[in-house]
Write a structure and sequence with these properties.
single chain; alpha/beta; Rossmann fold; 2 domains; elongated
Length: 280
């Protein structure tokens, strides 16, 4: 017996509501069905009484089971929207999150003239590609220690046709000898290694090396801040995303390293999320 669009969504919503708030369960059910049927939300709402083809219903059920096992929607779909760009994502990369758009916005505000920009730990390429797309006069270098992540970033660079982005296999600054940049950005690992959240929700499926950074979560941030002056032009800026409770510690690390004009910005949830400073 076939099910209608409305019946399919209702059944999925009821199952998802066991692990998600009702509003999220409803949205995710719609997202998964839209993906299978290759339609938009307006079509879905206008065709509630249409029957869902048997093959599509089977595929929808398969995706639903993956989600019920905890797999993030972005990995199930294979993409995520970020800063207006559609990006391929895989289990080799972190899933781009809205909080990180704060970092991109801050970077774009610093770009007035053509600049050389460096994105450390690029993952999907989200930050680098968003900056390159909105500041086409700049040249962006994006590095990552994961070859798997770089392959995903290259897929996204190619699909977005951004010629002003170059990708490099490098652990932070290791392969950037003698290069200087006007702006360095990074969303490095900043979760404490023993944080219980690493074993919960979407984080269980994301690469641990891109999430955790030592006992206090600041190991990579310390390394980046310590080494950045060797790669920044005079007057250049370093912008780092960090945990909601790490702003004061990050400001202190910047200050001890000799950076000036230190400032922390808040994300969409009003949490301290990005700290930037200038090297003079």
């Amino acid at each position: 017996m076939s099910l209608t669009v409305q019946q399919s969504l209702q059944a999925a919503r009821q199952q998802l509501a066991q692990m998600l708030p009702a509003s999220e369960a409803s949205l995710e059910a719609q997202i998964l069905l839209m993906h299978i049927l290759q339609v938009n939300r307006a079509w879905l709402l206008a065709h509630t009484t249409d029957a869902v083809p048997e093959t599509a219903l089977k595929d929808f059920t398969h995706l639903l089971q993956r989600r019920l096992q905890g797999e993030p929607v972005a990995y199930i779909l294979g993409y995520r929207e970020f800063f207006g760009l559609k990006l391929t994502v895989t289990s080799d990369t972190l899933i781009p999150r809205p909080d990180t758009e704060t970092l991109v916005e801050a970077a774009l505000q610093k770009i007035a003239l053509p600049m050389r920009v460096l994105d450390l730990g690029t993952g999907t390429g989200a930050i680098a590609l968003a900056i390159a797309h909105h500041a086409p006069q700049s040249q962006v270098t994006a590095v990552d220690a994961s070859e798997g992540a770089l392959k995903v970033a290259e897929i996204n660079r190619h699909s977005l046709q951004l010629a002003n982005v170059s990708l490099l296999h490098s652990h932070w600054f290791s392969q950037l000898a003698d290069q200087r940049f006007d702006l360095i950005v990074s969303n490095p690992p900043y979760i404490e290694a023993d944080d219980q959240h690493l074993t919960q929700g979407d984080l269980r499926f994301e690469p641990l090396s891109a999430l955790a950074a030592g006992a206090d979560g600041l190991a990579d941030i310390r390394q980046i801040i310590a080494q950045a002056p060797d790669y920044l032009n005079h007057g250049g800026w370093l912008l780092l995303e960090h945990g909601y409770n790490q702003a004061e510690a990050v400001q202190d690390i910047y200050q001890r390293a000799g950076f000036q004009h230190i400032q922390t910005l808040r994300d969409l949830g009003d949490n301290p999320r990005v700290t930037l400073a200038q090297w003079l």
